[in-house]
Design a protein that fits this description.
By secondary structure, this protein is an alpha/beta fold. It is built from 14 helices and 8 strands. Helix 2 packs across helix 14, helix 7 crosses helix 10 and helix 9 runs antiparallel to helix 10.
């Protein structure tokens, strides 16, 4: 039977605490599972617990005008440098070209020279066409934010939550450093990749949070994504089952319903079938994953990420 609660369990609270104790949380999952909503909810929950949070997403393709994640905070897109978006959270768009500029600046120690070099058509065309150059820029922009310090020398942000792109691109990014280090073994690029690996591939500092729905196909894709992340040596810290329907029926009522629904579909048939699918999907998840599983109830609100944050922040039942 699907079990949801108005508050988190002790196990779920422990899983959240473990996630928030890391430097970086990568929120991954198939499109349509609520990945951006969960990213915003996690950021808000962590900020309410006193964390200085950077909520980031990757740049969209050229011509894309709006970001669903930024839209939750009443913005079209996040800026390319961290800016406050409210309630102890800064927003950021991770950009490849800016990452390359930061890398060249660190290499040449002259920001103006780096910007001038990136304006040359030959170099821009090479970076666009070259294999993995785009991803390398994204990787370095992320690394620069992890490195960032405040005026007192502390890490500028306690926690960086990244809304990852769809599954295929997410796996390409998480496996990037290993592929490049096989090709580039020495020099500044290799040094930057190794520094990034010490952060992003250290389970104590970085973990993926995989989001799914309690439906057969999303669960299958979730399990495939978890396996892909493990093959790329990326730790998985938790799985979030989003929009889990509650079961309002007692065992006796379910037995009576099963007898009623053996014939022609009746009103409410779709809801009961959804609960059944969710039960089977949750049982499959519980049997397959070896990391904490967090259930988020199906919430019908104008600002679902805030309602989810309220749910995640409640005292355990």
């Amino acid at each position: 039977m699907v079990q949801t609660s108005s508050s988190t369990t002790q196990t779920e609270r422990k899983a959240l605490t473990s996630l928030f104790d890391r430097r970086v949380v990568l929120v991954a999952g198939k499109g349509g599972v609520g990945r951006s909503t969960l990213s915003a909810a996690l950021a808000l929950t962590a900020a309410r617990q006193g964390k200085r949070v950077l909520l980031a997403e990757f740049e969209e393709p050229a011509g894309f005008q709006a970001s669903p994640l930024a839209g939750l905070f009443h913005q079209a897109v996040f800026p390319s440098s961290p800016q406050p978006i409210g309630e102890g959270i800064h927003g950021l768009t991770i950009q490849s070209e800016l990452g390359m500029e930061l890398f060249l600046t660190g290499l040449f120690k002259l920001p103006q020279l780096s910007r001038l070099a990136l304006r040359t058509p030959a170099l821009r065309n090479m970076l666009r066409a070259g294999p993995s150059f785009h991803e390398m820029g994204l990787f370095y922009h992320m690394l620069s934010q992890v490195r960032a310090k405040d005026d007192s020398g502390r890490n500028r942000f306690d926690l960086m939550i990244v809304d990852m792109p769809a599954t295929g691109h997410a796996l390409a990014l998480t496996g990037l450093s290993s592929i490049l280090l096989d090709l580039v073994t020495r020099g500044p690029i290799a040094e930057a990749l190794r520094e990034g690996r010490r952060v992003f591939y250290d389970p104590a500092q970085c973990a993926a949070c995989v989001v799914t729905l309690p439906e057969p196909l999303p669960v299958s894709e979730c399990l495939e994504l978890i396996e892909g992340l493990r093959e790329s040596e990326m730790a998985v810290g938790a799985v979030v089952a989003n929009r889990v329907p509650s079961d309002p029926f007692t065992p006796a009522e379910r037995e009576a319903l099963d007898a009623m629904l053996t014939g022609e579909p009746v009103r409410g048939h779709t809801l009961v079938e959804r609960i059944r699918r969710a039960e089977g999907s949750m049982a499959r998840l519980c049997g397959a994953v070896r990391v904490p599983l967090i259930q988020v109830p199906d919430i019908d609100e104008d600002s679902p990420f805030r309602a989810i944050a309220e749910h995640l922040g409640q005292e355990p039942s």
